[in-house]
Amino acid sequence: MVGRLYGMRFEIRGQAMDEATDWLNYYNHRKLHSTLDYISPMQLEQNRLETQLKKFHNGRVKKYGYRSKDRK
């Protein structure tokens, strides 16, 4: 972020905040990271959440013998 904002002058603080927010959105949502096997940090978190939900759901099916949508 420093490289992108270095040397920039802003008339008001809100402009600086907008620029920083835009960069953070790019970095976390669109930029591919080699250390994350070329996916974005948000995609990594989404994949992890989906895996956890699948494990949780599968555990409920095994433990209780039903899927949540079958339950009345």
Core attributes:
mainly alpha; 0% strand
What is the strand and helix layout of this fold?
Layout (H helix, E strand, L loop, with lengths): L1 H4 L7 H18 L10 H24 L8
Offer a concise description of the structure:
This protein is mostly helical and 72 residues long. Helix content is 64%, strand content 0%.
If you had to describe this structure to a student in words, what would you say it looks like?
This protein is mostly helical and 72 residues long. It has one domain. 64% of the residues lie in helices and 0% in strands. It contains three helices and no strands. It has helices at 2-5, 13-30, 41-64.
Count of DSSP-assigned helices = 3
Radius of gyration: 21 Å
Q: Provide the succession of SSEs.
A: HHH
Mean pLDDT: 84
Categorize the overall geometry: elongated
Helicity level: 55-70%
Quickly give the structural class.
Answer: mainly alpha
Q: How many separate domains?
A: 1
